[in-house]
UniProtKB/TrEMBL annotation:
Disordered: annotated segments: 1-46, 435-458
Name of the protein: Phage portal protein
Top-rank lineage group of the source organism: Bacteria
Length: 458
C-alpha cells in the first residue's frame, strides 16, 4: 500500500485523452478474449472515451483501500450507512392543510410492491459503502417490455467512469468496464493477439440522455458528492491531504507496533559462544564440516527455543564447570539478557489525535460511533449523545439522502406520473429517554413531527 502515499489530489476530473493515449491502448495485465476467436491483427475497435478518475485512473480503488486498511474508517462507514439509511424507504406526499404546507405519509399498495420487487432498498444498501469511501455511486435503471422501470442495479464505483462533456456541456454516458485502471485509455485501439478484446460498454446517463436510455431500455444515474473545482467526479466528505496523512501515519504506527513486538522477542538475548567451544567440546579429531554442522544445529536449537512470540517463556540450557581457584562458573557460552521495553505511550497520543481527526473529517461525534478517544469510549453523557444523534439526523443527512434517493425518485415519477407531490425518503427516528418510549426510540416522520425530517424531493 505504499503507493497510497503518492496520490495526486489535483487529478480528479481531468480528461483522459492525451495525444499519446489516442495512438494506442496498452495493458498492464493481459486479459482473455472472451469470444474465443482470434481477432485480426489490424482490426480497429472503437472504445468509448472517458474521463480519468485520478492520474492513474484508479483513485476509487485507492480510496477504498485506505478505508479498508484502517481500523477506524470501516466502523465510521458502517455508522454513516446506518444513519443515512435510517429505517428504510417510505412514501411521503407534500400537501397543504388549512393554508399550511405539510408532509404526510403516503400509502399506495402498487407503488410499495414496485419498490420491493425492483430491489430499490437493496441497490441503495449496496451503493452506500461506495458513497462513503469515494463520494460517488452508480445505480442502473432497467426497463421492461412494457416501458416501465422494473429493476435497480448497483454498478461498482471502481468499474464506472463518465464520458467527457459534449458541446452542450453535458456528460451523456457512463462507461462501464470491470478492468479500469489496468490499461491506458484511448478513442480507438488496435486489436492484436497481445491486446485481447475490451470488455467495455457505454450506458446512457439517465439525467442528461433520457431519450437514449429509453431506446436502450437502460440508463445509469451518477450519484456524486460535489466538491469545489471538480467537474466530473465527487469526493468523499473526509477527503483531504491531512486526512490522508493521518491514515498513513495510523497504518505505519500499527505496522511499527507489530514489527516491534516480533523483533523484540527475536533479540531478547545476546548469546556469545567462545570461538573454540565446539572444538573443545567435540574433540580436535572431529572433521571441520562436522563441526560446522554442529554449529548450525546449535543455532537452530536456540532459534527454536527462544524466538517467535509463541515460544515466549521457553528456556535454553548450556553446560559449564567451576574454576577451582575462583569458584566461578566457566562456560563456552555466555547469555546476556536484553530488556524488552515495549512502552508505546508516545504513540497512544498520536492514535488519539488520528481518531479525533477522522471523527472531525467525517462529521462524527465519537460517542455516537463508539470511538475510543483519550482512553474513553466517546466522552459525552447519555443526554448529550441523544441530542447529538438527533441533530446529526436533521442537519447532516439531507444532502446525502437527496443525492442517494435521486434514482428512486426519478423512476417513481417516470412510472407513476399520475401521483402528484409523492416522493420516497428514508424513514427517520429520534433517540429519546425510556420514560418517553420503552425502546428509547421514537419515529420522527412528518406525520408525527411537522418539522419534517424527510428529505423533500424537488
Amino acid at each position: 500500500m505504499d503507493e497510497l502515499n503518492d496520490i495526486d489530489f489535483g487529478s480528479v476530473g481531468t480528461q483522459s485523452l492525451t495525444p499519446e493515449q489516442k495512438k494506442s491502448l496498452t495493458t498492464k495485465k493481459p486479459r482473455v478474449n472472451t469470444q474465443g476467436n482470434k481477432p485480426s491483427a489490424k482490426k480497429k475497435v472503437n472504445v468509448p472515451s472517458h474521463v480519468k478518475f485520478g492520474d492513474g485512473d484508479d483513485l476509487p480503488n485507492q480510496m477504498i483501500a485506505m478505508v479498508e486498511r484502517s481500523s477506524i474508517m470501516p466502523g465510521l462507514s458502517e455508522f454513516w450507512e446506518g444513519v443515512l439509511f435510517g429505517d428504510g424507504l417510505r412514501l411521503y406526499q407534500k400537501t397543504t392543510v388549512n393554508g399550511k404546507r405539510k408532509i404526510v405519509e403516503f400509502e399506495d399498495a402498487e407503488v410499495e410492491e414496485w419498490l420491493e420487487d425492483s430491489r430499490a432498498e437493496e441497490a441503495l444498501i449496496e451503493v452506500l459503502p461506495d458513497y462513503f469511501a469515494t463520494g460517488n455511486g452508480f445505480i442502473q435503471l432497467l426497463w421492461n417490455k412494457g416501458g416501465k422501470i422494473y429493476l435497480f442495479k448497483h454498478n461498482e464505483v471502481t468499474e464506472c467512469r463518465v464520458s467527457p462533456f459534449d458541446n452542450q456541456g453535458l456528460s451523456k454516458y457512463v462507461v462501464v468496464d470491470p478492468h479500469f485502471s489496468q490499461y491506458v485509455t484511448s478513442d480507438t485501439i488496435n486489436i492484436s493477439e497481445e491486446v485481447p478484446a475490451v470488455e467495455r460498454i457505454e450506458v446512457p446517463n439517465l439525467i442528461t440522455n433520457k431519450e437514449a436510455a429509453e431506446k436502450e431500455k437502460r440508463g445509469i444515474i451518477h450519484i456524486k458528492r460535489k466538491k469545489a473545482g471538480k467537474r466530473y467526479y465527487g469526493l468523499p466528505v473526509w477527503w483531504s491531504e491531512e486526512t490522508l496523512k493521518a491514515l498513513n501515519i495510523s497504518y505505519e504506527i500499527f505496522t511499527f507496533k507489530e514489527k516491534n513486538l516480533k523483533n523484540s522477542l527475536n533479540i531478547k538475548y545476546h548469546i556469545k559462544v567462545w570461538k573454540n567451544f565446539f572444538k573443545d567440546k567435540f574433540g580436535h579429531q572431529t572433521d571441520e564440516e562436522e563441526l560446522k554442522k554442529k554449529k548450525r544445529d546449535f543455532v537452530k536449537q536456540i532459534h527454536e527455543n527462544l524466538t517467535k512470540p509463541e515460544n515466549a517463556g521457553k528456556a535454553f540450557w548450556s553446560e559449564f564447570v567451576y574454576d577451582q581457584s575462583t569458584k566461578q562458573p566457566l562456560s563456552g557460552i555466555i547469555i546476556d539478557k536484553i530488556d524488552s521495553n515495549l512502552n508505546d505511550d508516545a504513540y497512544s497520543k498520536s492514535i488519539d489525535q488520528i481518531t479525533a481527526i477522522l471523527a472531525m473529517a467525517t462529521n462524527t461525534n465519537p460517542g455516537l460511533a463508539d470511538l475510543i478517544v483519550a482512553g474513553k469510549l466517546g466522552g459525552d453523557t447519555g443526554s448529550a449523545v441523544r441530542e447529538s444523534y438527533n441533530v446529526t439526523g436533521k442537519t447532516k443527512t439531507k444532502i446525502s439522502r437527496k443525492l442517494l434517493l435521486a434514482p428512486i425518485n426519478w423512476a417513481l415519477k417516470y412510472n407513476f406520473p399520475e401521483l402528484k407531490n409523492v416522493f420516497v425518503d428514508f424513514a427517520s427516528f429520534e433517540l429519546t429517554t425510556t420514560d418517553q418510549s420503552k425502546t428509547g426510540v421514537k419515529e420522527s416522520n412528518p406525520t408525527v413531527n411537522q418539522d419534517a425530517t424527510a428529505t423533500q424531493q424537488g
